[in-house]
Design goal:
Elements: H1 8-28, H2 38-51, E1 55-56, E2 75-79, E3 82-84, E4 98-107, E5 110-119, H3 125-143, H4 151-164, E6 168-169, E7 175-177, E8 184-188, E9 205-208, E10 211-213, E11 219-221, E12 228-230, E13 236-238, E14 241-244, E15 251-252
Antiparallel strand pairs: 1-4, 2-4, 3-12, 4-5, 6-10, 7-8, 7-9, 9-14, 10-13, 11-12, 14-15
Helix pairs in contact: 1-2, 3-4
Bound molecules: magnesium ion (2 copies).
One magnesium ion binds at residues 113, 176, 207, 209, 240.
Length: 256
């Protein structure tokens, strides 16, 4: 399948979309304290998104399985053993939990997408290490986003970093191309071999999103049809940036 390469002008629109995503994350981050609910965060994200002239990308996103209603949140809010696609709800978060917030928006026809996992107050040493290793695995992946490298170089960078720390890498959910559609080819798995897969070319824009667990990599989906959790109940973290391949250095669109 042909990959969609973006012009410099299109990448600048995507930059704008992704900086809106960044600003929303910056506003939500200090709200993640004991007592807040993920629905509070969702409501604020919705307000901010509209104020900034963008449309939320996940709200109403169609499910891939029949009979499952469209995604009901503006953010995906995934606490503790929830890996991704958690639905915002009214349960207050407690000290010691971790929470992944994934947020995407559409601006002038192009999408932005980014995720962070936060500690709620003080967390265990294991949780802290999980957050720092997952964030670091994303940085290692971003370094591979250079023309002439391949998707496998990105995948292997995440896997090597997470597995060196003794953590598991989720297989079922992967990063993706992004542009005028939220999810475009190619898949960007978080495990794989260097020098394999599609060649990275200037104009390719990827959402890279390591999902790392303290235990095994097996997953299951809860009855709501969306919430993806670790099968063994272990903690999971998720970080994501949208990155453009240029003639030179990686251009991370979703942060300043
Ligand atoms: Mg995302
Ligand atoms: Mg994504």
């Amino acid at each position: 399948m042909a990959l969609t390469l973006k012009s410099k002008e299109q990448i600048e629109i995507m930059r704008h979309a992704n900086m809106i995503v960044y600003e929303v994350h910056q506003e939500l981050k200090p709200m993640v304290v004991p007592g807040v609910t993920t629905l509070d965060l969702d409501t604020r994200a919705k307000e901010l998104c509209r104020e900034k002239g963008a449309e939320p990308a996940f709200l109403g996103y169609p499910a891939s399985s029949p009979g499952v209603p469209p995604f009901p949140g503006v953010i995906c809010s995934s606490p503790n053993d929830v890996i991704v696609h958690g639905i915002p709800d009214t349960r207050p978060l407690a000290e010691g939990e971790i929470l992944s917030i994934d947020f995407g928006c559409r601006y002038k026809g192009f999408f932005g997408d980014s995720a962070y996992t936060h500690a709620v107050g003080e967390v265990s040493e294991t949780a802290e290490k999980l957050l720092s290793v997952t964030a670091e695995s994303l940085e290692e992946a971003i370094k591979q986003c250079r023309p002439g490298n391949r998707i496998g170089d990105i995948s292997a960078a995440v896997q090597v970093c997470a597995e060196a720390a003794g953590f598991g890498i989720v297989r079922e959910f992967v990063g993706h191309g992004i542009g005028e559609r939220m999810h475009e080819p190619p898949h960007v798995p978080n495990f794989g071999r260097p020098a394999q897969g599609r060649v990275l070319k200037p104009g390719l824009v990827l959402a890279i999103e390591p999902m790392v667990t303290v235990g095994g990599f097996e997953t299951k989906i809860l009855e709501d049809g969306w919430t993806a959790v670790t099968r063994d109940g272990s903690l999971a973290a998720h970080f994501e940036h949208t990155v453009a391949i240029t003639d030179g250095d990686p251009y991370v669109l979703s942060r300043p």
